[in-house]
Every structure is written in C-alpha cells, then in structure tokens.
Design a protein that fits this description.
By secondary structure, this protein is mainly alpha-helical. The chain is built from 16 helices and six strands.
Length: 325
C-alpha cells in the first residue's frame, strides 16, 4: 500500500516505491522508473490517492494505477437483517480493531444524535443507537475510511432509500418513521422467505390494531449477551424494552437493519385475517386465524422435534456464527 500525497513530486514517488520494493531496488531502478514515466508522458498524470501494488508489476502497470486516481478499497457487504453487533464482526474481519471502534461509536449517544435519525425524544439511553438505520448494502472502504464515515455513509444510504412517499404512507397508517423502521426490522428477522414479508407484516398490523402483544421471538434475544441460540420459557418473561412478549406494541427501537423490501412490507401489509404464524422450519410459515389453529400448527411444526431438526432457515443459510442472531 502506498499513498500519493497531493503535489508529491514524481521522483519522490519513484523513490518511495523503490523503498517498498515496487520499483527495482537500486538507484538505476528508481531513475529508470522515473524517466520511463517522463518519456511516456505519465509522470505529470500521477494523481493523489491511496493505492495497492504488487511487487511483480511492470512499470507500465504501476503507472496505470498511479494515474487512475482510484484509491484501493475493500467491500463491506452488510446483509439485510444484520444488527450492529453482526456488522462489527464483519468490519473486524476486514480491519482488526475497527469492529470495536464501530461498536463504541454506535453506543456513543452524543455521536448518534448528530446523525440524521428520527429517534423519539423519550427513547432510553440504551436505545440511542443507529440500529435500524445502517442500511444493508456494499460499501467500499479503504485504510483511511474512519468508522464514523462508515456509519454516516450507511445512514445516508438509508435516508436516500426512505423516500418522502414512504413518510406519507407511514403517516397514513398512523405510524412514525421510527415505528415503521422498528416494525420492518422485526419483519426482516422473522422470515427467510422474501415473498412472505407482506403477509408477516399483516399479522403484526392485525395484532397492533387488536392491542395484542406482538410476541416475536427475535425481539426476545435482541441485546442479550448470554443468549445461546435456544429460546426458553424463562426468556419470554425476561424484562427488556425490546421483548414483545413482555411489552405491548412495538419494541423501543429496531432490532436489526432492515432492507428496502422489509421497509416496503411494513408500509404495505397484505390484507389478511391472520393473527398467528409458526415456522415450517424451512424459512416459510403456517399462518392461522384462531388460537386453536395456531396450537395445532405449533404441535405439528415445533413440538415435534423431528420436524425441526436440522431445518432452521438460519442453519440452511450457512451463515457464520454471529452474536445476537
């Protein structure tokens, strides 16, 4: 890696590249590289940037990079439904130490309040994070991209995605933007089948209208450091501002970062009579209207261990083990 500073002299660049082993390790090698660039009209076209080279490159290949002005970058790909902790793991894998700095910034209330995020005024301190607004996408980062820039770019992409028409639709439904993002995050975590999102959304909208608890399993484990992958009966009653088995209505904030389709589903639910759903253990669900129908579905697809063994859609996706999934 080598950074060409603004107004750096071509000969100084040649000397630096010689020290790095990119240019032949000799005085003649440095002069040859410099004069090769002069004679071919390339030295005056060198642009400032942070570049990556290989020691096997020919002088022409090195100059092509120097003239490109395109700094070397690596792709940070954030899947839909990942939360802050999971994103930090991805970032740590790309740049050791960066993951922890990312986490620290996401939990820095002073920094978070400088972001363009519609946080409610009464949100508790533990919920003052950019969770839900770190839009899933691929971001190109380089050695000098700060964690603050990464977070701001992700929020900026969210702001572009959540259009004024979506804001109007949220108001039409009687929701704030923050509530829609929160609902979308729950929808995102509840299904592995994209086509089911509007139907999952309809269940939650129906429950909210009937003043029923959402009782969404992903909200139970959000923020839990001690979660081992299995939800137990005691977990359902554990107090948390996100646990929808305990609280009424929506969680205090998002439990993940939803993609565009989940946001759309939250704003445009299917019209259904469904109140319940239970997993088929393959990413799809059984939707039911009455509690009796729901219990029958639970007995069929969940109580029977043979129906569940090795069929979790999270296992089928073969994702690397991550915290709070």
């Amino acid at each position: 890696y080598y950074e060409v500073l603004k107004n750096a002299s071509p000969y100084a660049v040649a000397q630096d590249l010689q020290k790095l082993g990119i240019v032949s390790n000799s005085f003649l090698g440095t002069r040859f590289f410099y004069w090769y660039g002069r004679l071919t009209g390339r030295t005056h076209r060198i642009k400032a940037g942070d570049y990556r080279f290989q020691t096997t490159m020919k002088p022409s290949e090195v100059y092509n990079i120097l003239m490109s002005g395109i700094s070397y970058g690596i792709g940070l790909t954030v899947p839909e439904g990942f939360n802050i902790e999971q994103i930090s793991v991805l970032l740590e894998g790309l740049r050791p130490g960066s993951g922890q700095r990312f986490i620290a910034l996401c939990h820095n209330a002073k920094f978070v309040r400088t972001l363009d995020i519609p946080l409610p005024t009464n949100v508790p301190n533990q919920a003052i994070t950019p969770e839900g607004y770190l839009f899933p996408d691929t971001y190109i980062i380089n050695r000098k991209t700060t964690e603050e820039e990464i977070i701001r770019n992700m929020v900026k992409k969210y702001r572009i995605t959540f259009t004024p028409d979506m804001t109007k639709q949220a108001q039409k439904l009687g929701f704030s933007e923050h509530q829609i993002v929160t609902l979308a995050s729950v929808i995102e975590k509840e299904t592995g089948a994209a086509e089911e999102r509007p139907k999952i959304s309809s269940v939650f909208h129906n429950r909210l209208r009937k003043m029923m608890k959402l009782q969404s399993d992903p909200t139970v484990v959000y923020g839990r450091e001690d979660f081992d992958g299995n939800i137990r009966k005691t977990d359902l009653s554990m107090p948390s501002p996100w646990n929808t088995y305990v609280i009424k209505g929506l969680p205090v904030g998002p439990i993940a970062n939803p993609g565009k389709d989940a946001l759309y589903a939250a704003l445009h639910p299917d019209t259904t009579p469904y109140i319940f759903f239970v997993s088929h253990n393959d990413g799809t669900h059984e939707f039911t209207v009455t509690y009796k129908e729901h219990q029958n579905a639970v007995n069929k697809f969940q109580i029977d261990r043979r129906a569940r063994e090795g069929k979790s859609w999270r296992d089928l996706k073969k994702a690397a083990p991550l915290k709070n999934q």
